[in-house]
Amino acid sequence: MSVELNVNGRVHALDVDPETPLLWVLREDIGLTGTKYGCGVAQCGACTVHADGETLRSCTAPVSWISNRKITTIEGLSSKAAKAVQKAWVELDVVQCGYCQSGQIMSAAALLEKNPKPTDRDIDLAMSGNICRCATYQRIRAAIHAASRQLTA
Ligand code: FES
Ligand code: FES
C-alpha cells in the first residue's frame, strides 16, 4: 500500500505495509540512518524523532498513524534551538559511544523549543525517556543549560 510521508520537508510516496514502524521506513526505505534502534519497545529513546515538533518514539509508531504529520529527523534538525543544542553538545564534548545521542539531541531540542529556560527538574523530566548506557547524563544536562544560555542571551 502507498503511504505518503513528509520527512524533513520532503514528501515521500512509499510502497510499504502501513503497520511498519516509522523507524524502519526512515532507515530502510528513505535511507536516513541517524535515527537509531535501541529497544524497539518505546523504552530507550534512541529512535526519537519529531512529529509536528513533538517527540515521537519511531520504533513503535506505524507509518499509517503519522502520514499526516511533519516528521523531522536528526538529519533535518535546523531550528534555532536545535542549532544551539548541537553547538553545546560539541563544546561540552557530551558524546561517548554516540549511539543514544541523536535521540538525546532530538529530545533536548524539543524541550528548548517549548521552554528556552528549563530548570534541572524540567530537563530531567523531558529527558527521562532517553537512556544512555555510557551515562553522559551530567554532560547532557550541562549542555542543555549551555544551549539555553545561548538562546536567551
Ligand atoms: S528503539 Fe525506540 S525507544 Fe528504544
Ligand atoms: S553515549 Fe553511549 S549510549 Fe549514550
Model description:
There is one protein chain. By secondary structure, the chain is α+β, with helices and mostly antiparallel strands. The chain folds into two domains: 2-76, Beta-grasp domain (Ubiquitin-like (UB roll)), CATH 3.10.20; 80-152, Orthogonal Bundle (DNA polymerase, domain 1). The protein is 41% helix and 15% strand. The chain has six helices and five strands, in the order E-E-H-E-E-H-E-H-H-H-H. The chain has helices spanning 22-30, 63-66, 80-91, 101-114, 120-127, 137-152; strands at 2-7, 10-15, 48-51, 54-57, 70-72. A hairpin with a 2-residue loop joins strand 1 and strand 2. The longest helix is centred in the C-terminal third of the chain and has 16 residues, at 137-152. The chain binds FE2/S2 (inorganic) cluster (2 copies). It comes from Ideonella azotifigens.
Please give the radius of gyration in angstroms: 15 Å
CATH class of the largest domain: Alpha Beta
**E-strand count:** 5
The CATH homologous superfamily of the largest domain: Beta-grasp domain
Order of helices and strands: EEHEEHEHHHH
Overall form: globular
Structural class: alpha+beta
Strand order of the largest sheet: 2-1-5-3-4
Ligands bound, unique: FE2/S2 (inorganic) cluster
Query: Low-confidence segments, ≥5 residues, pLDDT <50?
Result: none
Ends apart, CA distance between termini: 49 Å
- CATH topology (fold) name of the largest domain: Ubiquitin-like (UB roll)
Q: How helix-rich are the residues, as a percent range? A: 40-55%
What is the mean predicted local confidence, pLDDT? 96
**DSSP strand content:** 15-25%
Query: Any idea what the CATH architecture of the largest domain is?
Result: Roll
In total, the number of domains comes to 2
Number of helices: 6
Protein name: (2Fe-2S)-binding protein
Keywords: 2Fe-2S, Iron, Iron-sulfur, Metal-binding, Oxidoreductase
Pfam family, one: Fer2
InterPro entries: 2Fe-2S-bd, 2Fe-2S-bd_dom_sf, 2Fe-2S_ferredoxin-like_sf, 2Fe-2S_ferredoxin-type, 2Fe2S_fd_BS, Beta-grasp_dom_sf, Diverse_Oxidoreductases
